[in-house]
């Protein structure tokens, strides 16, 4: 099937683009001698895990389900970080994961023995308290009062009470970036060294989290490689990165059809896709998703607001303009729709889930999954 023939709405994963991204990551692994993991939170389409596993060292998870998925479908290194672990999950987690990262000293002490017995490598997430994100407070783990990671003062207090706290801990983990370049990583690493360097000296690995936009065109890959090499040399540690976005950045589309056009001072296109159901980050972040063959609202003669066929008044995707008039039945293609999209889908308003296709490098689209009424109904009773 060709792209023009798939039903709407559908997500298309672009295999060629995915491979391009993976090759950039492979180069980082080779030149910096580090390991890169897929953060499944951003992209869990396990149909392509065998492909991703050819390039990357493994997977990382945010909890039990992702950990199980990584183990079942990629089967390489399998890490997990969660702000807290449930006792009922933990026995299964130590069987699934080779690295478990804790968010607090209390969680570390609670589960340390279980990890040591199971031969799991233990990590502690630190909070360097160095914000680099400007206006995205919702994605800033260094924001004031953040629950994510142990601050230096909290670690020092814990060590003053019990000097054995870090015994058995193998690695430190920080995750402070979101869609950022390696200059922000560099300033973060400076702070990590200054504050946590004395602890890092005793560790076997450091995990620098995600948020590295490594496969973005303007990303300074050479600087990233320099930073990693420097840490390895200074502390004699293995270095991990666990990006989500960078793996499938720009490697997916959401194809939708115009169902109606409503003109109430603004011409609004009603699409068979929804921000609330299919691209929730548009409302949450918020941002205006890229759309093929479109322009900023004021740039071209044909101006429209793109919206959805849910009942939510605020289910608005964004304002765009075009070189041509848009008609009912036209297909529009949202870009960069592989990450934080399928993993966040829901059936609010009884809206169907988009099908998922893989577009091969020869242009052929292979169906991965189609959804129906049962997928809506089965979650509700
Ligand atoms: C979200 C997250 C990632 C992946 O972040 P991206 O922005 O998708 O690269 C990695 N590690 C942790 C701990 C995360 O919370």
TrEMBL record:
Residues 137-337 form the Orn/DAP/Arg decarboxylase 2 C-terminal domain. One of its GO terms (molecular function) is diaminopimelate decarboxylase activity. The keyword Lyase applies. Substrate binds at residues 245, 281. InterPro entries: Ala_racemase/Decarboxylase_C, De-COase2_C, Nsp_de-COase, PLP-binding_barrel. GO terms for biological process: lysine biosynthetic process via diaminopimelate; nor-spermidine biosynthetic process; spermidine biosynthetic process. Keywords: Decarboxylase, Lyase, Pyridoxal phosphate, Spermidine biosynthesis. Its cofactor is pyridoxal 5'-phosphate. NCBIfam families: nspC (TIGR01047). PANTHER family: CARBOXYNORSPERMIDINE_CARBOXYSPERMIDINE DECARBOXYLASE, DIAMINOPIMELATE DECARBOXYLASE. This is Carboxynorspermidine decarboxylase. It comes from Pseudobutyrivibrio xylanivorans DSM 14809. The lineage of its organism: Bacteria, Bacillati, Bacillota, Clostridia, Lachnospirales.
